[in-house]
Amino acid sequence: MKYIEDTIVMKRMKTRINKNKGWKVFFLAGTLFALLCLVILVIRIIIQGWGYLDWDFITNFASRTAERAGIKAALVGSIYMMCIIAPVSMILGVGTAIYLEEYAKKNRISNFIRMNISNLAGVPSIVFGLLGLTIFVRAFALGKSLLAAGFTMSLLILPVIIVAAQEAIRAVPKEQREASYGMGATKWQTITRVVLPAALPGILTGSILALSRAIGETAPLVVIGIPVILRFLPDGLLSEFTTLPMQIYDWAKRPQEEFLYVASAGIIVLMLFLVIMNSIAIVIRNKFQKRY
Amino acid sequence: MVQSMIKNENSIQLNVQSSKNLREQKTPYKEKTIVFGTNHFNLWYGNHHALKDINLDIIENDVTAIIGPSGCGKSTYIKALNRMVELVPIVKTTGEIMYRARNIFEANFEVEELRTRVGMVFQKPNPFPKSIYDNIAYGPRIHGIKNKKVLDEIVEKSLRGAAIWDEVKDRLNQNAYGLSGGQQQRICIARCLAIEPDVILMDEPTSALDPISTLKVEELIQELKGDYSITIVTHNMQQAARISDKTAFFLNGEVVEFDSTDKIFSTPRDQRTEDYISGRFG
Known about the structure:
Chain A is an all-alpha fold. Chain A is 75% helix and 0% strand. Chain A has 2 domains: 6-52; 57-288, MetI-like (MetI-like fold). Chain A has 11 helices and no strands. The longest helix of chain A has 44 residues, at 6-49. The longest helix of chain B is centred in the N-terminal third of the chain and has 14 residues, at 2-15.
């Protein structure tokens, strides 16, 4: 006695295959829709901003007239801020991830901490802005400075870096650690010689993507009270400064139509900035990628 | 028996200052030296009593095979010998394991020191994703050897010792992952030899290998046994019979029988041993 009859199998075969095709079309449509929106947005911005994008735009300070407006202060401010965020967030983030994955005992408290770090990654950036305002700007009296903003942004992306680094560290096979411990290596030697080299691509990719987020972020800076129009470059860690998204935001909300085009030019610069950073992430990942 | 063991341990203690010295001199007397003495050893994973009152003496320069069905505790036991089992956080132990008359669980016996003397080869070949050279040099380097010449010599000696020098001598700078599984496992054995261990623990070293690679690893074990004490966990009873001097049969966390391999496979004392080796269960 056969339980599976050929005729029924053949009849159902058609519907199963059609269902499969249907879902494929649905997902493809979803992808295309998102892609289309992105392409339209990018094209529109390039058309609007291209005319204003020249060397003067990069080297001029902000101005009341759209023709002479430039992005120098914002571009330099963003780069300086990144120079603070990158080391602070990566050292703290990778350190925390190493502690949680390699040293901390797995118990209720450490699980609770792990879970909350993941949750922190989802906290709105404006909340981090309030935190930065309370702690760095007021309590530490750093003012609306590069340092205060850099620390605030570091806190903002810290959970993302921790989670990315934790995952990269966890992905290193247990056998690799056993091989190292089995030869009498200490925990520190195992971490620096086996775990970190293997986890490095993942850590760097995650960190650079998190940095890109910090570069594009405005809300915390608005809360801290970063000025928009600056006609000088920051000259120290406690100096005032502005950033690309702040500058773009200011231009975009002005009534004159020309400033909309200036904003578009600013967006192109910001996007180029992000594309370069993400390319670095990809190059690093491909270069250090190791297979097991 | 117990008295002679105590006497034995005392005489070792005089010699124990440097285990390296000891290794070079070998034993001056005829009695067999105990490398690992396990006395009333118990181990729990959380509430699971994985090893129950183990008493087992591993003799210097012997190949000791540990056989038994899956989950009988044989891997746990071998991993207890170099305290690798402690990587699992919920492990508790009682009783003692004496390595050359020192309890490996005593506070002033650093686990790093133990693992330098007691090397391990794992079930799945686990070379590092580095060059063959760096794989072998890993052990000496973590112990602080930086001199390139010395490292070169150790790498060659270890690879020769693991009978793989001729196969890899022209590509020492290539990634060890380019090698076949059997070659990788012999690289792992060479890597283990590079720290000049006293004992080599092998946890089913051939279970992931094809028959020809298995044969090569078995031949290698035969060659190594003159210089090292080898303890090997194996699923393969023919393998145990082929290569070992003594065999311990584990069942449900207990040692059912421990005797010379010949006796275990020809005239086992325990009915369960006989059932297992004749393939009636397991």
